[in-house]
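Example record

One chain of 240 residues, shown exactly as stored in the release files.
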Amino acid sequence: MNMNVSDLNRPFDGRTKWSWLKAILAIIIYFIVRTACETGLILMNVSDPYQASETEMLKAMTLNQPLFLAKEIFLLVIMLGLVYLFKLDLFNLKQWSWRTAGKSLAFFAGVYLLEILFAGLVTYLAPDYLGPDNQMAIQEMMGNMNYGVFFFMVVIAAPIVEEIICRGLIMKHILGKWPWLGALVASVFFVILHGPDNWIDFMTYFILSAGITLIYLKTRRLEYAIMAHMCQNLIAALLM
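Predicted structure tokens for this chain:
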């Protein structure tokens, strides 16, 4: 995928006068609803969440499989609904190009190879490192739930919601006038969402995030960023 600096630095089209404010509101509302839903699921099975470990809270949240799946579907609908309600221009499937999709996947394959090389370096330099806590938590959740529910959460819902927030809302609507600043903020925010505890965690997620960011920066289509993210999570889910 050819990366022309002048094209990458071009402000995003499709923004309106108050779209930056609407995007911020959408992000705030989403996280309020998400926190309320997840807290509700935890309180159904944990009497004192302040005394419970992270593993116990994850188990409590996923104990009722139908409710957990309903929560995932509800949050996805909420995110898409907010985008529609605030008329935030993000998707246009009529502009889908299989050629661009192929180039995006080829580029992301290179990014994924870089991530594998980084993981190999970490294994050599820090053999006791087991992986990011977020990844360990996801593996713990997988052990507590139906694989179909896990697949929907990791491969479908998470990539769509995270790309809408990080690439669509932050890069395009909040910081769309300054593409490189938006790219940096979106990449770092993506890492923060996954709760890194150290620099190895940070770099593990940042390499992936930067790769998806560059795809979006070049194509200006959120669909390709979501596609790359889904492929990454699909590989991770299959490996788990």
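Notes: The chain has a mean pLDDT of 89.
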